[in-house]
Automatic annotation (TrEMBL):
Residue numbers binding ATP: 273-278, 376
Pfam families linked to this entry: Shikimate_dh_N, SKI
Subcellular location: Cytoplasm
SUPFAM superfamilies xref list: Aminoacid dehydrogenase-like, N-terminal domain, NAD(P)-binding Rossmann-fold domains, P-loop containing nucleoside triphosphate hydrolases
Naturally occurring in which organism (per UniProt): Faecalitalea cylindroides
Protein's name according to its UniProt entry: Shikimate kinase
Taxonomic path: Bacteria, Bacillati, Bacillota, Erysipelotrichia, Erysipelotrichales
Domain Shikimate dehydrogenase substrate binding N-terminal as annotated: residue spans: 16-90
């Protein structure tokens, strides 16, 4: 809900302000520190200046697009905020606003974690907002040879994406500080990495989805990369220390693992009648997650049963509906998704589901699969042929393969035990 300023102050102790916060993990992270309640407040551009004048808070974090406005609103600024001219953390002390830039600290922490040496490197930073300024300051302070800001149109001090293609394809490090690829626009990428000849590291400041299109492409090209989750967690810790005026002793890597576990999706794929819906629904209940069946979502979207869609419009039209519903649901967090058997036939479906999801292939022995069910049109073509066509696609798409040849409870327990393997979650770091 959008927070609209009124002269009756809505006071909060601590929280995050921004224009659109539906994607944010900040409340979850700050409340892990255990010291305070943390709110999310969306504020319109028309009311942000007045909000800072009234400053009805003890301490706040500031996100897109208000970091530069926050900088101007502060009475006192630390050296990092002054240098960057953007502020993402403000503490209200007796009516005076003290501004900090903990994005800087979060960025330094992330480069350090991945052992990235910026000295003498050629760095491209996409975007020119508050986050971009923090990245620029870190890179310059750590002696990068060239730090170039990229903007979508000509702008003083920036180059365009066309300029990148002409003169900067030998960059060593690429940083995305734009919102392109975030949650509601997760099928977009700010730039194509394939023409670059020398990239060592890609840093996407977006953390929801965890695997953006940009990160997915970097992995395909064997370029080291990370999302913005560690940066977010680290800057939150530093902000909390400013809020409380005390040091917080917490292992950041463990907190990142916890956040991933609580936000990632579990996505079930496999042959028709392999038990995806049954097992996934039970698992969702057990883990207290929302359960989504994509076939049911298609039927809601179209007002038709699956068999009717096949009969009236054919398989291609059905696959279009399936992709539409997949894109609509893959951007959610902390859900369990049961997919139709043919979800793997379009790679864009798996790429979308992998952005926030652990893909679980439920493999049931052929003898146990239903041989004919009028509600499942593709089974009419022969279960053996279908299995042969799809087996490799399922195995290529999955993060875990689980044999469903036991009871529902036993198979579900195997799923839970498999999900305890922390190596699974490295795909999100």
């Amino acid at each position: 809900m959008l927070f609209i300023f009124s002269r009756r102050r809505v006071f909060m102790q601590y929280g995050l302000i921004g224009e659109h916060l539906g994607h944010s993990f900040s409340k979850m992270i700050h409340e892990k520190f255990g010291y305070y309640h943390y709110d999310l407040k969306e504020i319109s551009k028309d009311h942000i200046v007045e909000y800072f004048k009234e400053h009805p808070f003890k301490g706040i974090n500031v996100t897109i697009p208000y970091k530069e406005i926050a900088f101007k609103a502060c009475d006192h600024l630390d050296e990092q905020a002054k240098s960057i001219q953007a502020c993402n953390c403000i503490v209200n002390k007796d009516g005076k606003l003290y501004g900090h830039n903990t994005d800087y600290d979060g960025i330094v922490e992330t480069f350090k974690h991945f052992d990235i040496d910026l000295k003498d490197k050629k760095v491209l930073i996409l975007g020119k907002g508050g986050a971009s300024k923090a990245f620029e300051a870190v890179c310059k302070d750590h002696q990068a040879a060239i730090v170039q800001i990229v903007y979508y149109k000509p702008y003083p001090g920036c180059i365009t994406y066309e300029d990148v293609q002409r003169s900067y394809l030998d960059a060593d490090i690429l940083i995305n500080a734009t919102p392109v690829g975030m949650a509601m626009h997760s099928n977009a990428s700010p730039i194509d990495l394939s023409p670059f000849t020398n990239l060592e590291f890609v840093f996407d400041a977006i953390y929801n989805p965890l695997n953006t299109k940009l990160i997915q492409q970097a992995k395909k090209l064997n370029i080291r990369c990370t999302n913005g989750l560690l940066m977010l967690v680290a800057q939150a810790k530093y902000a909390a220390e400013y809020f409380l005026n005390q040091k917080i002793d917490m292992d950041l890597d463990s907190l990142v693992d916890t956040i991933i576990l609580q936000t990632c999706n579990l996505v079930f794929i496999g042959m028709p009648s392999c038990g995806k819906s049954t097992i996934s629904r039970q698992l969702a209940n057990n883990l207290h997650k929302e359960w989504i069946d994509l076939d049911e979502e298609i039927e809601k979207e179209t007002g038709m049963k699956i068999a009717e869609i096949f009969e009236r419009y054919g398989e291609d039209r059905f696959r279009n509906f399936e992709t539409l519903v997949t894109f609509k649901n893959c951007i959610k967090n902390n859900v369990v998704i049961a997919c139709g058997g043919g979800i793997i036939l379009r790679k864009e479906n798996i790429e979308a589901l992998s952005q926030n999801g652990i893909i679980i292939y439920l493999d049931r022995p052929l003898d146990n699969l239903i041989r004919h069910d009028p509600s499942r049109p593709k089974l009419k073509e022969g279960i053996h042929t279908l299995y042969k066509e799809r087996k490799d696609l399922y195995e290529k798409a999955c993060d875990i393969k689980i044999k469903n040849d036991k009871t529902i409870q036993k198979t579900m327990q195997i799923c839970i035990e498999s999900l305890k393997n922390k190596n699974l979650y490295k795909k999100f770091k």
